[in-house]
Design a protein that fits this description.
Layout: H1 2-9, H2 16-35, H3 40-77, E1 108-118, E2 123-131, E3 134-142, E4 145-152, E5 158-164, E6 170-177, E7 180-188, E8 193-198
Antiparallel strand pairs: 1-4, 1-6, 2-3, 2-5, 5-8, 6-7
């Protein structure tokens, strides 16, 4: 009974009780073989649930961390330039002690990050986008996905990274500026990763 219960609760405990289900199940099966007591079905079900859920949660967390590590490595490989604090449009043209005044930097543009799934791809395990290395990351996202950000002046460094959450289908990702597609790509296969980058001209 303990093996079966801990196996079932593994669905909602991120796999922590699944390990207990494996232990309890094997201990119970050994006792049943030795004493001939009842409960073999529940013990066997607990062992199966325990192993299956333990493996599934290990795979889930491993793939999730792959997305986090990939984003970290990308940021490390392309660091922002300069050592001083970033200057905002309100800082332009001011000297210490002077009042800060706004300076025109050009029209506002709309950046759209998009991800869609076809042929059976319905969700993304991880979606990471960045505008000049301001990173936003989401997990367990249903497809299609879209998010908008605004920018002024020259085109910023843009990046989009999408990982299929399943073993089927194709994931397509694209970056649009003012409705025009700047970069797009697609990836197929189990847990395929689609990524696009649009640098400053």
């Amino acid at each position: 009974m303990a093996a079966l219960v801990t196996g079932l609760t593994g669905f909602v405990t991120c796999g922590f009780t699944s390990i207990l289900a494996v232990v309890f199940g094997h201990v119970s099966l050994a006792q049943i073989r030795r004493d001939g007591t009842d409960g073999r079905g529940m013990a066997l079900a607990g062992v199966i649930l325990g192993w299956v859920l333990t493996g599934a949660w290990i795979a889930f967390w491993a793939l999730s961390w792959m997305g986090v590590i990939s984003s970290f490595l990308y940021t490390a490989a392309y660091p922002t330039s300069g050592t001083g604090p970033a200057r905002t449009p309100l800082d332009v043209g001011t000297q210490p002690g002077q009042a800060t005044s706004a300076a025109p930097v050009g029209p506002v543009h709309l950046v759209t990050f998009e991800a869609v799934g076809v042929d059976g791809a319905t969700s993304a395990l991880n979606i990471t986008n960045s505008q000049d290395f301001r990173i936003k990351q989401e997990q367990g996202v249903q497809l299609p996905y879209t998010t908008d950000v605004n920018y002024e002046g020259n085109q910023p460094h843009l990046y989009l990274w999408v990982q299929n959450a399943g073993t089927e289908g194709v994931v397509e990702c694209r970056i649009k500026i003012d409705g025009q597609v700047m970069r797009e790509a697609k990836s197929s296969g189990p847990y395929g990763v689609c990524q696009v980058t649009a640098d400053k001209p």
